[in-house]
Write a structure and sequence with these properties.
The protein is of the alpha/beta class. It has 16 helices and ten strands. Helix 5 packs parallel to helix 6 and helix 10 crosses helix 11. The chain is globular.
């Protein structure tokens, strides 16, 4: 299980249209994910085949079982009720019906304790043509929610702002949230903001400067995360739909800019979505029908192709230091957990050796095998264990293999560890 706190970074955000949201959305997503997993990859070896992993790796069974346990106990870490792209264009009356329904379901889920650990809504862009509608969505949702009297302080709640272009749009949202908090009797900054970077002008402003710091500053202390929208971004760069995707070089540039601009800010970074979904092209109309052998083969190939693309995209994100990403379909969730857990298990043994050696030398520059580890790489190794522990990839015994305790990674920092190491006995 993930070790959650208000400051913990979830490893994914599941987006779903507001018309689909119910209080038990997490368990429903988990049931669909488990069904696909049992049908197409019911054991570690078949899962390895599905995503293209060597079935002989020593950690395969442990990671597969850990992912299955995660699906049963906590299939969704973060969920975003979507009133934008995932919702589509609908009449205002229909939108209002769904806003009320979502608010009541959030209240029910809060009281029953069945919501994901992190939750939020994505409103319409705060741009001239949709700003008033976005304000209405925000106000109507929270006023309806407040009437149900749930304990809103029990959930880290955020508002996701799409299509961000100017700091004025961010500050306008922050002001609206402040009004909502006052109306609903919430403490200031109870509700956070997430910004979606979906246009080159949100990276580089017209005068050539980096636009990101001003956007974060406009949110005040509310900005919790910045999410990358790869497909809007590449479209704005006039990249053909045939070449769009998380692996395009222009996306690498945007992610690196986000990292450089926000390093040390405490704002979480999230990558976008793999849009190839694990959906079966053939289904039977009723239980009496059976698929042909060829149809079953096409289903399996379709699922495996989507899973492999998700696996590659998530691996790329992790390699680039993006530990969170989007999932658009329940069938992507097993891949998310397996990929993240396997990423940390692949490097666990070597990381443990290097970090124990680093600590034995009391934070002095050290050489371990072919690796030269100074304070900078020591910090990277500490970050490895801290994130592996936070997301539930490793257990306490594996944490201790690196010479660390729960207290070190949950309540401490790398600097705290350094001070502990160099203090006289």
């Amino acid at each position: 299980m993930t070790r959650h706190s208000a400051s913990t970074q979830p490893i994914h955000t599941v987006y779903g249209g507001a018309h689909l949201f119910r209080a038990d959305i997490a368990s429903k997503c988990g049931a669909i994910a488990e069904h696909l997993l049992q049908r197409y990859a019911p054991n570690p070896e078949k899962f390895a085949l599905a995503v293209g992993v060597d079935p002989k790796v020593p950690w395969l069974e442990q990671v597969y079982n850990r992912a299955c346990t995660k699906l049963k106990n906590e299939p969704v870490e973060d969920y975003r009720i979507d009133f934008e792209d995932g919702y589509g264009y609908r009449p205002d009356d229909e939108k209002d019906t769904h806003i009320q329904q979502c608010a009541r379901e959030v209240a029910r889920g809060t009281k029953e304790g069945i919501l994901p650990p992190f939750l939020g809504i994505r409103v319409e862009p705060f741009q001239p043509e949709t700003k008033e509608r976005a304000r209405h969505t925000l106000d109507f949702f929270f006023n309806t929610l407040a009437d149900q009297e749930p304990d809103l302080s029990s959930i880290p709640f955020v508002i996701t702002l799409p299509k961000v272009l100017t700091s004025q749009s961010v500050s306008s949202l922050s002001e609206e949230i402040h009004k909502v908090e006052q109306q609903c009797g919430l403490n200031e900054e109870t509700i956070g903001i997430e910004l979606m970077i979906e246009h080159p002008r949100a990276i580089i402003s017209e005068d050539g400067s980096c636009a990101l710091p001003a956007l974060i500053q406009a949110a005040g202390n509310r900005c919790r995360a910045v999410h990358f929208g790869a497909y809007d971004y590449t479209a704005a760069c006039e990249i053909s739909a045939l070449s769009q995707g998380l692996g395009h070089p222009s996306c690498d540039f945007a992610r690196h800019m986000m990292q450089a601009a926000l390093a040390g800010s405490g704002v979480h970074l999230s990558d976008g979505a793999t849009t190839l979904l694990p959906i079966e092209p053939h289904r039977t109309a009723n239980t009496d029908e059976e698929l042909t052998t060829e149809q079953m083969k096409e289903n399996l190939n379709s699922i495996y192709r989507a899973w492999r693309e998700s696996y590659r995209d998530i691996r790329r994100s992790l390699h680039q230091g993006f530990y969170q990403g989007w999932d658009l379909h329940p069938g992507q969730i097993p891949i998310r957990y397996f990929t993240v857990f396997s990423y940390f298990h692949e490097g666990l043994e070597l990381a443990a050796q290097r970090f124990r050696r680093f600590q034995e030398q009391a934070a002095q520059a050290t050489r371990s095998g072919c690796h030269f580890d100074d304070v900078a790489t020591g910090y990277g190794l500490f970050n490895f264990f801290q994130r592996a522990w936070a997301c539930g990839a490793i257990d306490e015994h594996q944490l201790e293999s690196g010479g660390l305790t729960r207290l070190d990674v949950e309540a401490g920092t790398f600097q705290d560890l350094i001070h502990k190491l160099i203090e006289p006995a």
